[in-house]
Design a protein that fits this description.
This protein is of the alpha/beta class. The protein is 43% helix and 16% strand. An eight-stranded parallel beta barrel has the order 1-2-3-4-5-6-7-8, surrounded by seven helices. The longest helix has 18 residues. The protein is globular and about 70 Å long. It starts with 6 loop residues before the first helix and ends in a 13-residue tail after the last helix. 38% of the residues are buried. The mean pLDDT is 94.
Length: 268
């Protein structure tokens, strides 16, 4: 089983940049992101229509590329987590983690016995359909799988210390829109309460030897969260990035359009 090329950097606090994909589930997307310098990509199943068959296809398109394919599952339940890992996910992101018990259940679903309760399926996508020693594969799977717990509710924030203390949770990732909603300040990213929550998550992650992650949608967000201590960063969304790039070029074309020859009435 191939190791996870970014996990050591993530856990040692180095800056690691990647992307989140919500719409363009094409076999070329993984390559495009890798060519752009992204070291990881999270394919989203929480807010999209992405299903397991397409997800497996996307993971296959990343084989041999210098990028780690991962997925955000809809919920932290065994049926989502174990299947995604069996298909080749190098990491899983779980939304709305709110307690230590929930965090432990997530880790159990992602680990084989005696550490966890994950069922065995070797010689398939996760180990590139190869044979080999099962014990060695189990150790490799445990070492390479990155488990990302999203702290994005008032309950998760209240219990963030206990969640971070769970062995096997690697990254605390703030979902900023949900967190602002659950704090009663929808979209209030300049609110001191939101700022304090962001700083608390980063500080707790650092104190427990975890990484702090965030989806930074522009340069302002990147600088803001880097200063707070967030080191695993996704750069916006595929939808937002494409829309911004197209809009800028369209505006440029409009600004440089030549004046029409003659008055409109003179056209024959």
């Amino acid at each position: 089983m191939q190791p996870n090329a970014i996990k050591n950097d993530v856990m040692s606090g180095k800056m690691v940049a990647g992307a989140m994909v919500f719409e363009f589930f094409s076999p070329g997307t993984t390559t495009i992101m890798a060519n752009a310098g992204c070291r990881f990509v999270f394919y989203d199943m929480e807010h999209t229509g992405l299903g397991f068959e397409t997800l497996k296809w996307l993971f296959a398109s990343g084989r041999g590329l210098p990028i780690e394919p991962m997925v955000r599952v809809p919920r932290g339940e065994y049926a989502w987590l174990a299947r995604a890992l069996d298909m080749g996910a190098r990491g899983v992101m779980i939304p709305m983690v709110e307690s230590a018990d929930q965090a432990r259940s997530i880790v159990e679903a992602c680990r084989y016995p005696p550490i966890g309760r994950r069922g065995a399926a070797f010689g398939f996508a996760q180990d590139d359909y190869r044979g080999g020693d099962v014990g060695q594969k189990i150790r490799a799977a445990h070492e390479r799988t990155l488990i990302v717990a999203q702290i994005e509710t008032e309950r998760g924030l209240e219990n963030v210390e206990a969640i971070a203390a769970v062995e096997g949770i690697d990254v605390l990732w703030v979902g900023h829109f949900d967190l602002s909603n659950f704090l009663g300040i929808p979209g209030g990213f300049a609110d001191p309460r939101f700022d304090a929550a962001m700083r608390r998550v980063a500080a707790v992650a650092r104190a427990h030897g975890k990484a702090a992650g965030f989806m930074a949608t522009d340069e302002g967000w990147i600088e803001r969260v880097r200063e707070m201590g967030y080191t695993m960063l996704a750069i916006g969304t595929d939808v937002g990035l494409l829309g911004t790039a197209v809009r800028q070029l369209v505006e440029r074309v409009a600004a440089t359009a030549p004046a029409r020859a003659g008055a409109a009435g003179a056209v024959r």
